[in-house]
């Protein structure tokens, strides 16, 4: 019997463990730092909020980071069965064909859109489109597009059309980007995380074991062969180990185990196993929140989702020759939240009479094609000390120019005639700021956040091969968003599930 250890039961790890344990001659042990209880707390099921994104929630790692020098941030990541898929916004949008082409350029044809489409169809149960050449109706992840009947959602789409953008009915099909509903793994208000979708039944299999509340600390090597996983309970041995601890967790484990840049590891006294560029150039979507006040009450508890509609488009800002072209996929996203800001993190509506100037809502403007790259390094050789995460946002002039287009476009959409019936004004943005690049750059820095889509710390091509196998060592793979050569131009939740499925297929077929 082959024994495989999977570290992390998140968006990629849960699918991977479920698929591997379909082979009855394989023993699968999943080690997860958070709870693996089958009873999911109600606030984690409630897709109309993102309550666990608040620092301090037990299901959130809340890693300290710097978005830019002097801009500290606590990065939410799920620490629970389902990982970040249990605490996220529920958007389940496939990578675009152009994203897959960028991955295939580094990883080979197995990552082309044509090669991945059958897997994307097999992992979903599209409740709107059903089975067809683009969609599947029998996979573990239910996908539904939220109703667009909220007054803000209707007005937002109409305002985007008024500003010259096109409708995009299905963001999970190829075609030009535009405004439309966000495909989501939300059914009847429940966020169907990967723990529910993949492991609810599979966890009853005799060859699958889940250990919760246990943090993997290091991979144990014999020369360059990975032979076990060190935890506070001791060492668990295996024939193969697959890191699915997410772009931060897997990176920390690789570095703490001696896989990373030689000079960095030597400086901390960590014995080198393989000199590889781990954590050196990650990508994520910087975002800017634009707060606005509603002219009337918009959010209702009966609408059990938070993010209904998104506008994807190309900024028109071109980078230097040779850089990726975003004309056909879009490099900006404007996301409409149909719940007031406070409600998203608390699950409670504020007393509207206490807000005579109008309920506070937000548009989230994300740069989906960032040029900037960040770095993760160890702060200490102690595997329990959080790593140092430097996003280095806003260093690229192209990124700043694209974000300015994003904010100006969002402001124009809010001010369009079609939005007038719901719009009472901006909270803190004025025409002087909008007109002046330097003032707008400062406003953007003051409203800077991250979409929490961190990817590419152990990219295919340089750190792993196309099947997640870590170069220069044996018996060790990475299968989570760390291996994406670059963050997709949409949210990576669907890509993470895809990675779990693709690497599981490679392992099962002996690749
Ligand atoms: C608040 C929030 C909102 C988001 N909204 C969206 C959205 O709407 N749409 C979208 O597409 N994407 C969204 N994302 C991003 C998306 O959820 C992630 O990109 C995706 O879940 C990453 O999958 P993963 O498998 O790489 O990592 P995760 O899903 O984060 O899984 C990693 C797992 O490994 C475990 N782990 C980590 N370290 C260790 C260790 N040392 N030992 C044992 N276990 C460990 C963690 O506890 C976790 O369970 C959001 C993310 C967050 C945090």
Describe what this molecule looks like in 3D:
With 511 residues, the chain is of the alpha/beta class. The chain has a single domain (2-508), classed as FAD/NAD(P)-binding domain, CATH 3.50.50. 25% of the residues lie in helices and 22% in strands. The chain has 13 helices and 25 strands. It has helices at 13-20, 42-45, 97-107, 113-123, 151-162, 194-202, 246-256, 262-267, 341-346, 397-414, 431-435, 437-446, 493-508, and strands at 2-7, 26-31, 63-68, 71-75, 124-126, 141-143, 179-181, 186-187, 190-191, 208-211, 216-222, 225-231, 234-237, 240-243, 259-260, 274-275, 286-294, 307-313, 332-337, 360-367, 375-377, 388-390, 423-426, 448-450, 476-478. Strands 7, 17, 18, 19, 20, 23 and 24 form a seven-stranded antiparallel beta sheet that branches. Strands 10-2-1-14-25 form a five-stranded parallel beta sheet. It has a three-stranded antiparallel beta sheet with strand order 11-12-13. Helix 8 (262-267) links the parallel strand 15 (259-260) and strand 16 (274-275). It is globular. The mean pLDDT is 96.
Short overview:
The protein has 511 residues and is an alpha/beta fold. The protein has a single domain, classed as FAD/NAD(P)-binding domain (3-Layer(bba) Sandwich), CATH 3.50.50.60.
